[in-house]
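Hi Y.,

Following your request, here is the sequence exactly as I used it, all 449 residues.
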Amino acid sequence: MTDIAATSAPPANLGAGTAGGRPRVVVIGGGFGGLAAVRALHDAAVDVTLIDRTNHHLFQPLLYQVATGALSPANIASPLRGILRKQRNARVILGAVTEIDVDGRTVRGTSFEAPYDILVIASGARHHYFGHDAEWEQFAPGLKTIADATDMRRRILGAFERAEEATDPDQQREWLTFVVVGAGPTGVELAGALGEIARDALRDNFRTIDPGDARIYLLEGVGQVLPSYHPKLARKAQRDLERLGVEVQTETLVTGIEPGRVTVRQGAEERTIAAHTVLWAAGVQASPLGRLVAEGAGAEVDRAGRVIVQPDLSVPGHPEVLVVGDLARVTGDDGEPLPGVAPVAIQQGQYAAARIRRGLTLGGEPFHYRDRGKMATIGRGSAVAEIGPVRLSGLIGWFAWLGIHLFWLTEFENRLLVFTQWAWNYLTKARSARLIIGRPPDSSRDAPR
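Below is the corresponding structure, written out as tokens. Let me know if you'd prefer a different format.
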């Protein structure tokens, strides 16, 4: 088996490559999967082009802390050019992909064209409103980008400002009511952070309202929070949330979101919650590039828009096109699709790079995900974690959560900044990044910008 890292001559199935005979690898997406693939090719005899709509890599698991004022955006994001500054075989293109010509092996954008011999698509996922995107997204923002996080922070902090100004008690209650839709890890972490903001960070900051009077609803359609976790840990997480003042409502489906109100159904009963601030954490859908490449390659996508790939992550009929991360539908050992989490994307990116280094072969070995566990934090000193057969909760789980998240941050500077900020927040219960970017919301019709 030939290793590309050991020779400058490309394998026969990789095409002509560049003028120097080196295969051209184009990677779409600078998230966990795409960046892992690029970095794993650092000493391979290939020319890598990384294309992303933004100029930075974002550590999404901590994005909710930007949205709730615990961290600043620069704490969890790093410029892609800075990360790859010493990788001489890699270049970065800032732009949006508009066309993938599978037959012509070319990726096109509004201002660039990038021919390839091997294509790795890792463009991630976006919010999914289950067919109600047009009606609900403007009133219930999701959390996928820094822009989403700063907009969500503006809405959260702005709601307290509007409550302070309100003279009508009903209006005050509506501004002090927060609804988080979806009780997966993101929803649980958001709801817990909201509880800490109301009861700790904003204490004594206002004169006409008590932020501790805020009502925080966490809505989940199935029978427990953190549906993919062991029921014992889910019950522990719910108890910790309730201690923070969060009202957890399971088996509750959202049927409508309008200005100032959320309509929900529990069994046969339907009711409304009067609230100006609704935060969406209920579902994701694959990037539109999934359908784009599927149409060009004659592949299939699932209901969430993920490309159904081969066990080696290639698109059927096109071994030179690999799909990784949230965009790929890959079945795990339990027969269920792998979750859209960072460890899956990272391992798939590394696997794709290993295949590229070996001329798109790995002796027929399919991708196999090694589950490193899962975890979610509920608040200060409280988290739940499943690491193999080990289940952790409380302070021990929280320390495990802290250590693992610090480890996976991309650069040392980010680790140092985040550790320092966390230490300060723990000691003072403060959230020093409570900046409202843009005007505070003036009504529930205030849409994301």
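The longest strand covers residues 47-52.

Thanks again,
Q.
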